[in-house]
């Protein structure tokens, strides 16, 4: 199976919270990342968390990490139409330099 | 600070040709990684260079190669292009191992 898995699609209403989930399998993960990709663009780094942390908050974004279950989530508060994009989680592993293993991406659609 | 730049942004080639893509990292960053993004395979790691040395290599054929110069700029080369090489090629730069990794806008390669 895939090393990093995400659900394909999420639809929310403007103003609601969005929660995008990610699971990974490698216990040697060191950093876990969330990237945003808009159509025709590169990847924008949203936030990242070191594997010994449980939570990180940055303005509207909250990252939760459950290391025991190898589960990562990204919560976007007060979701706006400009948040519509594909969101990728990624992990880097011990002894693998800066190599990132990505999930397949979750397409977030925000309805007005 | 300028972000990661990639040139050219778009390329059209024919099967059998070769292509060279360029990536200029953020000033001061020593690590450059390359990724291929396709609808079918998602984001896949190609290779990483750190201080002019290839540190990691993904599972791609030998037609894919790269190098890094003393100013940290990196190039990747694909020889004997195949239709399946059509993709968005992204590079990422980082100051050190672990932590923030920033992506460029990508080079969209189309092989006819």
Describe the protein's topology.
The complex is a heterodimer of chains A (112) and B (112).
Chain A: E1 4-6, E2 9-13, E3 18-24, E4 29-37, E5 43-50, E6 55-58, E7 61-66, E8 71-76, E9 85-93, E10 100-102, E11 106-111
Parallel strand pairs in A: 2-11
Antiparallel strand pairs in A: 1-3, 3-8, 4-5, 4-9, 6-7, 7-8, 9-10, 9-11
Chain B: E1 5-7, E2 10-13, E3 19-24, E4 31-38, E5 42-50, E6 53-57, E7 64-68, E8 74-78, E9 87-94, E10 102-103, E11 107-111
Parallel strand pairs in B: 2-11
Antiparallel strand pairs in B: 1-3, 3-8, 4-5, 4-9, 5-6, 7-8, 9-10, 9-11
Describe this structure in words.
The complex is a heterodimer of chains A (112) and B (112). With 112 residues, chain A is an all-beta fold. Chain A has no helices and eleven strands. Chain A has strands at 4-6, 9-13, 18-24, 29-37, 43-50, 55-58, 61-66, 71-76, 85-93, 100-102, 106-111. In chain A, the strands form two sheets. In chain A, strands 2, 4, 5, 9, 10 and 11 form a six-stranded mixed β-sheet that branches. A five-stranded antiparallel β-sheet of chain A has the order 1-3-8-7-6, with no helix packed on it. The radius of gyration of chain A is 13 Å and the shape is globular. The model of chain A has no long low-confidence stretch (mean pLDDT 93). Chain A binds chain B through residues 30-31, 33, 35, 41-45, 48, 50, 88, 90, 92, 96-105, and chain B through 4, 31, 33, 35, 42-43, 45, 48, 50, 55-56, 58, 90, 92, 94, 97-106.
């Amino acid at each position: 199976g895939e090393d990093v898995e995400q659900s394909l699609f999420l639809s929310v209403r403007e103003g609601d919270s969005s929660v995008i989930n990610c699971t990974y399998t490698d216990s040697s993960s060191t950093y876990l990342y969330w990237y945003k990709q808009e159509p025709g663009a590169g990847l924008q780094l949203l936030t990242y968390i070191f594997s010994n942390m449980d939570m990180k908050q940055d303005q509207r974004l909250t990252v939760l990490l459950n290391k025991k279950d190898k589960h990562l989530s990204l919560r976007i508060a007060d979701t706006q139409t400009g948040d519509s994009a594909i969101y990728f989680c990624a992990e880097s592993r011990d002894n693998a330099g800066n190599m990132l293993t990505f999930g397949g991406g979750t397409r977030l659609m925000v309805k007005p | 600070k300028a972000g990661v730049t990639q040139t050219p942004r778009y390329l059209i080639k024919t099967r059998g040709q070769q292509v060279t893509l360029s990536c200029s990292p953020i000033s001061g960053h020593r690590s450059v990684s390359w990724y291929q993004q396709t609808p079918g395979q998602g984001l896949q790691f190609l290779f990483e260079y750190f201080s002019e040395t290839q540190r990691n290599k993904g599972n791609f054929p030998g037609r894919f190669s790269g190098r890094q110069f003393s100013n940290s700029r990196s190039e990747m080369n694909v020889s004997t292009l195949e239709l399946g090489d059509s993709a968005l090629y992204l590079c990422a730069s980082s100051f050190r191992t672990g932590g923030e990794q920033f992506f460029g806008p990508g080079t969209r390669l189309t092989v006819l």
